[in-house]
Amino acid sequence: MAVPAQFKAIQHHLRTAQEHEKRDPVVAYYCRLYAMQTGMKVDSKSPECRKFLVKLMDQLETMKKELSDNDSINQEVVGNAHIENYALKMFLYADNEDRAQRFHKNMIKSFYTSSLLFDVLSVFGELSEENIQHRKYARWKATYIHTCLKNGDTPQPGPMDEFGAEGLGPGPSPGIGFTPGPSGPPSANYNNIQIPPGAHAPANTPAELPPPTGELAPPTEVVKPVPTPRTGAAVDPPSLSNSQPQSAVQLSPEDFTKAQKYCKYAGSALQYEDVSTAVQNLQKALKLLTTGKE
């Protein structure tokens, strides 16, 4: 079904959903859910938009029934972890390619698609500051690298702080929109994008993962980005033995939700055989449950 002109802002999220229909139905579902929620805010009254939204709702309802036994659909915390891990995996693949100075359409698309998935995370609530920065950086990088290649210039690898927020290397500033061909990201326009030093690499993400889509060939050489400071300090397991007994700790419902979220993140990390990330998230959950503090 054709996307109404009023819904231009969500057409790329719907395209991402279509691309993941068979590859990852959970990603497709939440991309459509984001598109529907956003579309409702934009225009739910005009006949064209209303008809489109009704069809989208029907599509979501059908998908929900088909995926009724999938925890990522039934439990928000699991769905949140699934989409965030997927977005970070795409981000890291593109970041590794960028730092190794392997500039190509797939890495541009990977940066751009990760930014769309960070948008989608808003269906679960407000984005963390870290994910907001990842989204800005991914969109800026997709724009910048595409424009450089289009103009025959060599992009500068790494975050902008490595070559100055004012001087963005060869090519125009990130405020310039772009319209690549079918293999690249859709046309877009990004303005006033800022990224703090070190915020280019996602935290709590495996450093060596294959790209999430069939289109993206895994890098022959993985260049690990400089890690960012993690939001919670790693807990040394022996130190937990000195923590307060559970009965003495007053835990709020929010604490239990956070602990559950850490456990789900750990489970997702294990799917990618990333032991260190799983351990770090389990340690965070343990610390929260035993001390009441993150």
From TrEMBL:
One example of a Gene Ontology biological process annotation: late endosome to vacuole transport via multivesicular body sorting pathway
Coiled-coil ranges (or none): none
Domain of life of the organism encoding this protein: Eukaryota
Organism in which the protein naturally occurs: Sphaeramia orbicularis
Family: Belongs to the VTA1 family.
GO cellular component entries: endosome membrane; multivesicular body
Occurrences of domain Vta1/callose synthase N-terminal (ranges): 10-151
Record's subcellular location: Cytoplasm; Endosome membrane
Name recorded for this polypeptide: Vacuolar protein sorting-associated protein VTA1 homolog
Lineage: Eukaryota, Metazoa, Chordata, Craniata, Vertebrata
Keywords, ordered alphabetically: Acetylation, Cytoplasm, Endosome, Membrane, Protein transport, Transport
Description of how the protein assembles with itself and partners: Interacts with VPS4B. Interacts with CHMP1B. Interacts with CHMP2A; the interaction probably involves the open conformation of (polymerized) CHMP2A. Interacts with CHMP3. Interacts with CHMP5; the interaction involves soluble CHMP5. Interacts with IST1.
Domain Vta1 C-terminal residues, every copy: 253-290
Feature: compositional bias, Polar residues: 239-250
UniProt gene name: vta1
Region described as Disordered: 152-253
Pfam families membership: Vta1, Vta1_C
Bilayer topology annotation: Peripheral membrane protein
Record field: compositional bias (Low complexity): 218-231
